[in-house]
């Protein structure tokens, strides 16, 4: 549950979601669920030359299972909290 | 289950024959929805049926023409209103296909050739005649996608790891899953051996964690009673 909990903290921030088909989409994280399905708002495709037809979509829902990476905003990463959370998670509680 | 778009002709009256045995139920019906597959032209308006399992589009005039795609195959769906992206406001979907081929990377351009094959279509646009339906459509797609998490592609052992925690994410083959498993209290009931193994997997598969060793050290320390 660590990633679910952590991503929930990032709601409202800008993230870049890279799919397993190499498409990368940047947008404001609207919500995330326990399957790590991700909803983005005000999205745009990072490589617009390659995917011109996806120039801009307003809302976007991405299946958790097709996500390869989520690039986080630097200011959305609190290293100390993340360290604590991973240790708690490793202890099982 | 077969990934990708499939032809669909099983009709009952004006609607699709659903897989009642699998618990499939109709969630929404939208009339006057045109469909465009890949880079092909828009097809005449038909009726869109959204079920708990899949999206089915039926041509109103030609009963032999219809398409179905499982929510499990829909990687992404979005509301597209930018006329530069597509001339008409639409629901844009990306579809995961069964065959992984090099030509897939050429994107949808390869689909406009003569060798058009439904199973290779990676994009589908649904264009409602009434654009005000877009948000309702989008939300319904979200709702139904969440009803269809991926079946766990990991081994049986992995299945048992996530079993028992309803909140646990299922069916991911990503490194994240290993991290989730590590946090599953069930791991502890299996004794230190399994725990140590999963920690090892974490180190191997998730090198992004700088403090993986520290985590391991602490965890093991906790368990030497």
UniProtKB/TrEMBL annotation, chain A:
Intracellular or extracellular location(s): Nucleus
Sm domain span: 2-76
This protein's GO CC annotations: catalytic step 2 spliceosome; Lsm1-7-Pat1 complex; P-body; precatalytic spliceosome; U4/U6 x U5 tri-snRNP complex; U6 snRNP
Pfam families the record matches: LSM (PF01423)
Keywords: mRNA processing, mRNA splicing, Nucleus, Ribonucleoprotein, RNA-binding, Spliceosome
Top-rank taxon, per record: Eukaryota
InterPro entries: LSM_dom_sf, Sm, Sm_dom_euk/arc, U6_snRNA_Lsm2
Recorded GO MF terms: RNA binding
An annotated GO BP: mRNA splicing, via spliceosome
Functional summary from the UniProt entry: Component of LSM protein complexes, which are involved in RNA processing.
PANTHER family (UniProt xref): SNRNP CORE PROTEIN FAMILY MEMBER, U6 SNRNA-ASSOCIATED SM-LIKE PROTEIN LSM2
Family: Belongs to the snRNP Sm proteins family.
Protein name in UniProt: Sm-like protein LSM2
Organismal lineage: Eukaryota, Viridiplantae, Streptophyta, Embryophyta, Tracheophyta
UniProtKB/TrEMBL annotation, chain B:
Cell compartment(s), UniProt: Cytoplasm; Nucleus
Single GO BP term: chloride transport
Positions of the UniProt region annotated as Disordered: 148-189
Gene3D superfamilies linked to this entry: Pleckstrin-homology domain (PH domain)/Phosphotyrosine-binding domain (PTB)
One matching Pfam family: Voldacs
Family the UniProt entry places it in: Belongs to the pICln (TC 1.A.47) family.
Protein name, per record: Chloride conductance regulatory protein ICln
Provenance organism: Ananas comosus var. bracteatus
């Amino acid at each position: 549950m660590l990633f679910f909990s952590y991503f929930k903290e990032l709601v409202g921030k800008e993230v870049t979601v890279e799919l397993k088909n190499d498409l990368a989409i940047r947008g404001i994280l609207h919500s995330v669920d326990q399957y790590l399905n991700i909803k983005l708002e005000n999205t745009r495709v990072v490589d617009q030359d390659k995917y011109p037809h996806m120039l801009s979509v307003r809302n976007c829902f991405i299946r958790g299972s097709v996500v390869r990476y989520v690039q986080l905003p630097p200011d959305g990463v609190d290293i100390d909290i993340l360290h604590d959370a991973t240790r708690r998670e490793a202890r099982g509680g | 289950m077969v990934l990708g778009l499939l032809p669909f002709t099983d009709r009952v009256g004006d609607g699709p024959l659903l897989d009642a045995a699998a618990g499939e139920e109709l969630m929404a019906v939208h009339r006057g929805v045109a469909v465009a597959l890949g880079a092909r032209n828009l097809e005449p308006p038909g009726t869109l049926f959204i079920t708990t399992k899949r999206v089915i589009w039926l041509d109103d005039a030609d009963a032999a023409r219809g398409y179905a795609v499982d929510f499990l195959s829909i990687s992404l769906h979005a509301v597209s209103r930018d006329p530069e992206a597509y001339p008409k406001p639409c629901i844009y979907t990306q579809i995961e296909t069964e065959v992984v081929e090099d030509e897939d990377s050429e994107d949808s351009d390869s689909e406009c050739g003569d060798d058009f094959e439904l199973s290779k279509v990676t994009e589908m646009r649904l264009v409602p005649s009434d654009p005000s339906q877009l948000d309702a459509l989008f939300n319904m797609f979200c709702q139904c996608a969440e009803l269809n998490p991926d079946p766990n592609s990991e081994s049986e052992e992995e299945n048992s790891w996530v079993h028992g925690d309803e909140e646990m994410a299922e069916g991911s083959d990503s490194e994240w899953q290993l991290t989730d498993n590590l946090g599953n209290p069930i791991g502890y009931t299996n004794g230190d051996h399994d725990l140590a193994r999963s920690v090892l997997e974490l180190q191997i598969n998730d090198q992004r964690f700088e403090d993986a060793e520290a985590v391991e050290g602490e965890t093991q320390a906790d368990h030497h009673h």
